[in-house]
Amino acid sequence: MEQSIEQTTEILLHLSPIEVANLKEGINFFRNKNTGKDYILYKNKNHLRACKNMCKHQGGLFIKDIEDLDGRSVRCTKHNWKLDVSTMKYINPPSSFCQDELVVEMDEENGLLLLELNPPNPWDSEPRAPEHLAFGEVQITYLAHACMDLKLGDKRMVFDPWLIGPAFARGWWLLHEPPSDWLERLCQADLIYISHMHSDHLSYPTLKKLAERRPDIPIYVGNTERPVFWNLNQSGVQLTNINVVPFGIWQQVDKNLRFMILMDGIHPEMDTCIIVEYKGHKILNTVDCTRPNGGRLPEKVALMMSDFAGGASGFPMTFSGGKFTEEWKAEFIKTERKKLLNYKARLVKDLQPRIYCPFAGYFVESHPSDKYIKETNIKNDPNELNNLIKKNSDVITWTPRPGATLDLSRMLKDPTDSKGIIEPPNGTKIYKDSWDFGPYLKVLNAAVEDEIFLHSSWIKEYFTWAGFKDYNLVVRMIETNEDFSPFPGGYDYLVDFLDLSFPKERPSREHSYEEIRSRVDVIRYVVKNGLLWDDLYIGFQTRLQRDPDIYHHLFWNHFQIKLPLMPPNWRSFLMHCG
Question: Is pLDDT of 66 > 90?
Fold first, then answer.
């Protein structure tokens, strides 16, 4: 039964009347000496605004932005994101996020309180004390990437099954060889959790195999703004038991087992994470969330698993021009991976799980045409992260291999128990050395010759359907071959998103400009099927230049998340063309 969650008020900082009298106009930085937490207070005459000194991206600390002559913005020390504290809106990336504000109240003595209105941690509703676990009662088996097979008493639960085929069109392929019985394991599951719509978690090739044998298997997803299975009908996969559940509410499976899905604080429209609890023992899977549950997570869980690798973006490998030299990209990637590694290690140290497992980062750009990406998109080593964690805490770490099984009861009782983690038998193939490219590329290539693209008016039809406009950005779209040279007979055109026009030349007014070169098979497949542009961008199927060098959040957010749920009506389009 769903229960309402009572809101509580927490005092984060108290300023004395003298400190209030000494507030300067503009930006003021404060630290709570008792908690070590940092805050920003902005004063404009008698008006005060306040927030946590924590960047929404990856929790970095803000400092004064020396480039801001008006004294209204602060800069994150991690990735140079900028926040206008006078409006609580991020200005780099532009038109992106808003900072969560704190409540400012004056006390009876003209002191000042910074307050945060919080719901209680939802997992603390109806708390359960941990009960005794028998050996073998809870077992976690790693299959591949972000896919875990959990035995929880007499129930089986599977996370994010991507076990065959590519993800992001043709850009990602499995690094690990899944156990040979992976399909049997899926068919025996009592329930499956799919965290979000990205195809390395929601794998239609995998689910198609499963649906042929168990179309009614219960699948659970969070109630995200863009439905996880928004493209189910068009995929042709026949699944009949998809359950969308609210965030922060325990879902009871049996008397011992329950789970709760939580949203991501940065991408609540699509990302989720999960807490699974069996007999009072919690398993926390934060998956790909940037700030799961806004940064509030249960501490001292039995097992925590999260992503770790980095590299799940076209930036900066697919960019060229300006600062994007090979040297700059290599240094940027090295720095970013180190930041991510330190962030994950700090998060684990703060949350103090008994056991930590890095996963959801085991992919490879194995198609020969993506050799450059494979060589430059260096990812974090899970053993390096685990060693960093062990240096700073007593947390037990587990680097999983396909088919390896962790016995939770044994590991909680004695981490040195030789039966606590059962590795796959000697001779088991761990890493894939061949991939079946053919069937998947054949589907993509079929779109190249589709009748739609005989008519140049498809361009207006498609971008009108997409619905993005009133934004001062001009994009040049170029269809290319495998090496990103213009495709013979392919389209090369401009889109002016200010008025959604298609000029022959760039307009004379001042405007932002991007050039997007896309492999013809993937861009036409995406256009034909009304798919999101993650297949292009995260899948490394584009090469980009931009002037000025600004990330256009509204543009990319629209084409990666907010396109219409129904694909373009190409049948009607072709009838009118005829």
Answer: no
